[in-house]
Amino acid sequence: FLVGDTRHVIREAAKKSCFICYKLGASITCCEMGCDRTFHLPCAPDGECVTQYFGAYRSFCWEHRPQQAVPARPSQDNTCSICLDTVENKISYKTMGCPACQDARFHRHCIQRLALHSGIAFRCPCCLNQDPFMMEMLRMGIRLSKRPPSWESVQAVRPSGQRHSRCDARTCLCPGGREHVEEEGPWQLWLCSSCAAEGTHRHCSSLGNSTYSWECNTC
C-alpha cells in the first residue's frame, strides 16, 4: 500500500464493527466472495475464524473457513495426542486431526503451542509426518515458526531444568513485583512461545482468556 491507501484502509476499518464483539475498528474481512463479515484478529478464536499465515494471508469467518476432510478415528480414542485430555468425537474448529496417519487428534490450542515451540522441527506428534502435515496445519490457520525448537534455544542460554521466572513487560503492573508469579489469574507468567527466554504476567500484556500463546518483542 501507499501512504494514502494505508490511511484509507484505516479510516474504512474504523467504520466497521466486529461481528464477534460488535466493537468498531474491525480491519479483517472474510475472503469468501459476497461475505461482508469483519472482525478483529484477537476476536478470531472466539468467533471460530481462521487466518492463514502464508501466501496471501487470507482470513475466513466461521461459515466459510476451510474444513478438514479427515475420516472418523479408527481407534475411537477421543483424547488429545498432545495434552491427553478429552477432545470432541468429530473434527471441528477446536478439534483437529493429522491428514497423514488419520488417527491423531488434538486441540487447536495444543497444536498451535506445539507449532510455535517446535519451529522448523514441527511435525505430527504421532506419526512424525512433516510436509503434508505442515501444509494442512497452515491451511487450517496454524501459525508456524521458522526458528529452531525452543528447547534447543533454552538449553543454549541457561542450564537444563532452569525456567525463566520473571515478568519482562516494559511496565510490570504486579503489586508483588516482576519476580512474583501465581499459577492462575492475572499474575500467571507466560513465557515467549518462540524463545522461552522472556516472560510476562498475563495482565501486564493484556492477555485474554482466549489467548493461547505470547511472543516477546524480540521474536
From TrEMBL:
This is G2E3 ligase. One of its GO terms (molecular function) is zinc ion binding. One of its GO terms (cellular component) is nucleus. Gene3D superfamilies: Zinc/RING finger domain, C3HC4 (zinc finger). InterPro entries: EPHD, PHD-type_Zinc_Finger, PHD_PHF7/G2E3-like, Znf_FYVE_PHD, Znf_RING, Znf_RING/FYVE/PHD. The keyword Ribonucleoprotein does not apply. PROSITE patterns: EPHD, ZF_RING_2. Residues 80-127 form the RING-type domain. Keywords: Ligase, Metal-binding, Zinc, Zinc-finger. Residues 1-65 form the PHD-type domain. The keyword Lipid metabolism does not apply.
